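Abortive infection bacteriophage resistance protein
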Amino acid sequence: MNQPIPPKPFLAYVDLVALLASRGMNIVDVNAAEREIARLGYYRLSGFWYPARRFARDGAGNKVSCPQTNKPVRLEDFQPGTRFDRAVELYKFDKALRLLMLDAIESIEVHLKTVVAHELGRNNEMAYTSASYIEPKWTIVNRGYANSKWDSWTIREQKKQAECHEECFTSHRLKNRSVPFWVAVEAWDFGTLSLYYQMLKRKPQGWILARLGLHDVKAFISWLKELNTLRNRCAHHTRIWNQSSSNLIALPNGSPYFQALNLNANALKRLYGLIAVIWLLLQRIEPGSQWIRQIADLIDSKPAIPGCTFVAMGFPNEAGFPRHFFGI
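Predicted structure tokens:
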């Protein structure tokens, strides 16, 4: 096995700022730049100035691609007009965006827990422990695995309950009383909830969709997966503004809402597509919500940095948030 090459040498904050300046970044206030790197970390911030780095080009002026990733190669130096303070502003913009996304996802998660617990719980108070509601294929142990997907989910769910010390759980333990569905879901995270829905038989899946005014199970499962990924990125303070998913968001057939938005492939793998999905769900859950206006105002405030475009967020052009599509 080949030995890894040595790491890059350690640099103090003052040297990191000098390095950025030597690569063409405009440092308006050197002391402020040192403080921001000390506060946020050089490599956390580097994700926000990365799009401003120049592309490597061949003699004909074409971008050079990396043979391993097939992505364009970036040089170390920056495009003209790249400012350190704008990169910090982009970080703050992304943070505000994460907070708005978490606020919306919380509303969706809480409502979905309530609906799932009600629709399954009214059939069987302990339905979440019963494989009779689960598609048989998820209860089969495939070759090379110790457990079925259902068994693995059950272990995960039991662990969630065991780790939960809210009074509603401790009182059930003290009384040696079985935990009903509507209590159990309070221990679940979004991933546990999403997996449970995916494994359900088509009929109970339909009960839940009907409560949301939806009908396309495949599209809804796609939304849950991507919303869970987004939720985890937000919760772990990971950059979201220009992230791209390897999976396109599925759209329900014949939906006037999505047809009017005319989302392209770029939108369906980036933040714009998720904003469209979140807003559809919020309108069903919280009529009167002003979330979409908050999102539009924030996105239109995106700092101007070379290479940091609205298209990188999935929007159709550089005009900002397409308010007319959403009637705002």
